[in-house]
Amino acid sequence: LFHKAWLSNQPGAWSLVLLPSLTALTILGYTARRAIVIVAWLSGYCFIFAFSQWLANTLRKRMLPATCCWAVVCLLCCSLVVMTSPMLVLWAPVFLCIVAVYAVYAWQRKIMSLGAQIAAVVASCVMVLVLASVQTSITFTLSDVRAWLSSFVTLPVVLCACAWFAQEAGTVFHVRSMLRRRQRTVMRRISLLWHVLMVFASVRFPLLMLMAMLLLARTAVLSNIPMRVRVSTIGGIEAVCALGTYAAIIFTVFTSV
């Protein structure tokens, strides 16, 4: 499955895809419609992964079965989402733009570029807003649209989405400063600056600020190690950081917001 473009073999990618949505589900509560949305999101991710591999490998036939299969599954799941939560169709233009950006990078064989990775981060964080807007009316009157907007423009939801964007974007900058030798100096500076801004941005929320300081310390220490750090070691550290961010967001939302 991993070698034929059916599933991504990168644990960091699955962490990026799952944790923001699981955080939103923990904060907002489980419902059948939200579960359907998450299944659709996962099928969409698998389709985009397979599609990007197909494009990046010059449309090779061995990549086509995975792309076609996930396209059908994604279409069925999205149809079910529209049937159960019609207002979510308003998010379609956002995700179409993100997919278009990612497809361009895939066609250029640059799916590991900074732009493609940030596009994936944005998509994952927008899912927090999508899940918050699930439980809304099924009609499209002006009052319903206003209610739909107010359903996800709330402090807990926006805080969750922003916190995950800051953490995941910081992870992208940090990992690139560790693995991309040609960009090492520039990305180290960007990563350090980003994490410093995270500390100041989270000053109102002590636990998030503490987590941002730990992430800053991780970046400051690891990015200056002269020897090459193993990819598995970096992945393990980032997994711990992601779980720490999850716990910090949950605790902050339930105690301080």
- Give the N-terminus to C-terminus distance in angstroms: 43 Å
Assess the beta-strand content as a share of residues: under 5%
Structural class: mainly alpha
Written as H for each helix and E for each strand, in order along the chain, the element string is HHHHHHHHHH
* Low-pLDDT windows of residues: none
Sum up the overall morphology in one term.
Answer: globular
**Percentage of residues assigned to helices:** over 70%
Overall strand count: 0
Average pLDDT level? 84
Number of helices: 10
Using only CA atoms, what is the Rg?
19 Å
The major β-sheet equals: none
Question: What's this, in brief?
Answer:
It contains ten helices and no strands. It is mainly alpha-helical and 257 residues long.
List the topology elements:
Elements: H1 11-28, H2 32-56, H3 64-84, H4 92-107, H5 114-132, H6 142-152, H7 155-179, H8 184-201, H9 206-222, H10 231-256
Structure in words:
The structure is a single chain. With 257 residues, this protein is mostly helical. The protein is built from ten helices and no strands. The chain has helices at 11-28, 32-56, 64-84, 92-107, 114-132, 142-152, 155-179, 184-201, 206-222, 231-256. α7 runs antiparallel to α8 (184-201). The model has no long low-confidence stretch (mean pLDDT 84).
